[in-house]
Amino acid sequence: MGRRVKSGRRVWLRRAWVRRVGVSIGVWFAAACGGPSTSGALPSAEDVIVAYESTRDIEAEIVGNVAVLTIEQDPNQLRRGGSLWAKVGPYIFLFSAETQDLFVTYPGLAAVRVVTTVGG
To answer: What is the pTM (predicted TM-score) of this model?
Structure first.
């Protein structure tokens, strides 16, 4: 049995129809989801530092829509806990009520990045 060869025009029309349907679905999803929010407020670096109220030395900066925290970790914790404490240190701040409050208060904030350094 021989294979039927489809005409080039028919294949082109079918591909154009698939493209139109794909674009229509994309536009529909964007309208249904409300699209990306561009009206969200961002915190200042001082707002982020105040939100975490810690006795440790905290530095903060806003890079785009990401809050970057740099926090000193106690060297004694690293001596006692080793690499486990070094890995867990940022998550103590990241998964906290303060981080959640920042996201609720400032809807334009996309992420919080926590970097720990060894204090002296």
So the answer is: 0.61
